[in-house]
Automatic annotation (TrEMBL):
GO terms for biological process: phosphoenolpyruvate-dependent sugar phosphotransferase system. Keywords: Membrane, Phosphotransferase system, Sugar transport, Transferase, Transmembrane, Transmembrane helix, Transport. One of its GO terms (molecular function) is protein-phosphocysteine-sugar phosphotransferase activity. The chain crosses the membrane at residues 21-41, 61-82. It comes from Salmonella enterica subsp. arizonae. GO terms for cellular component: plasma membrane. It is an enzyme of class 2 (transferase). This is PTS system IIC component. The keyword Chloroplast does not apply.
Length: 97
C-alpha cells in the first residue's frame, strides 16, 4: 500500500507472477471500476502523476480518494473470489507451512 501511495506499481508484480489468472483480470477490473467512478463523479487529475504529492492538484479530491478505495476493494474481493473458485475446482493448491 505504501508503494501505491508513492506511485510505484511494481509492488503488484510478485502477486501477478504467482497467479496471473486471478491477479491480472482483478487488477484490470478494479482499476476500471475505481477510475470510472472517480471520473463519473467529477474528479480530474491535472498532473500526470498518481503519487500522493500530486493529490493537491486533483479536483474533487474526496471523490478521487473514494475511487481509489473502491478500486482497491473491488480488486481484493475479485482476487479472493477467483482464488476460492480455483481452489474449489482443484486448480489451485494451497501449501501450508
Amino acid at each position: 500500500m505504501f508503494l501505491a501511495f508513492m506511485g510505484i506499481s511494481e509492488g503488484a508484480i510478485p502477486f501477478a507472477l504467482e497467479s496471473p489468472v486471478t491477479a491480472i483480470p482483478s487488477y484490470m477490473v478494479g482499476a476500471i471500476v475505481g477510475s470510472t467512478f472517480a471520473v463519473w463523479l467529477g474528479a480530474v487529475q491535472w498532473f500526470p502523476e498518481s503519487a500522493i504529492w500530486a493529490w493537491p492538484l486533483v479536483s474533487h479530491l474526496s471523490v478521487y480518494i473514494a475511487g481509489i478505495l473502491l478500486g482497491a476493494v473491488i480488486t481484493a474481493l475479485m482476487v479472493v473470489f477467483l482464488r476460492h473458485m480455483m481452489y474449489r475446482r482443484g486448480k489451485l493448491l494451497i501449501e501450508s507451512l
